[in-house]
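FAQ: What does the model actually see?

It sees only this:
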Amino acid sequence: MTKNFFAGRWGIICVGAVIGIFAGILQKMGNPGNMGICVACFERDIAGALGLHRVGVVQYIRPEIIGFVLGSLIAALTFKEFKPRSGSAPIARFILGVFAMIGALVFLGCPWRALLRLAGGDGNAIIGLLGLAGGIWIGVLFLKNGYNLGRSQATHKSVGLLFPLIMLGFLCLMFLYPQVAGENKSGVLLYSLKGPGAMHAPLFISLVIGLVIGFAAQRSRFCTMGAFRDLILFRHVHLLTGLISLALFAFAANLVLGQFNPGFEGQPVAHTMQVWNFAGMVLAGLAFALAGGCPGRQLFLSGEGDGDAAVFVLGMITGAAFAHNFGLASSPKGVGPHGIAAVAVGLVVCLFIGFTMRKNIKGV
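And it is asked to produce this:
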């Protein structure tokens, strides 16, 4: 009954509602403005906490990300859907993850945050969502013309458990080296003292919400990229209803909690350089489409044993390090000094992958 419920129309609507409401609650309890949940931003913060970049305002291991993976793992094990697999063009997936993150950080948010920014009144998110849809549309054209990363192969159970164990290790590090008031380092972990990284809900609450979302999303196959892909390819709106539900319930939560502030200027962790809001999300959307899932979906897949999805996530974390070490990421002041060039390079690389990895190429 649980499986059928989550797989049905009301199931996907409920999952979207849960994500939207919890995002508003997490923001109220301390997460950054219009960033109750942002997979890209939170993975960037994790990269900073591990010292992969040294931008002091975005360094914190986000328990929500850990919860997404472990919640998905619990669901997969409970319903016998834990299927360890890997081997589908790992280097291509890693590169796609790198450029997906770079595109998202030029816009300043993943697809979920784009919806949450819109639900919070940020008009700049409209441009980002249009870019996301455009990037996914380009990716769908490649899918129609035979693009394929190849088939994953069943593998050892330990391979499927490696990424969840990494997440569990991160959680252990948070308990071993908790944040010390006024200190930017605790043991091996770095902590922001100001900026978005210093804004976070209590650890236990963030973790529990992450576990609930991870469990429910794994059961429902919730995916932003998949929603746009299914609409474009098949005119199916099942997954899209989940996205609409997320935005509407996040909007309602923001109204109730006093977090709705409409406008374009002065929005939290956002900029108004609209060309690059659009282009950054075109790059991100194209990379998500070519990799087969949005950032959230990749986390849920990695929790159910998909090693290829885990490689994509590791690519995103690495991309966050590149973005902040080399001035590619945006800030509320605008696009980083090398962000425009990075978007251009990323589009070229993604198009190269799309054109060259097709079934109808001789020998493939």
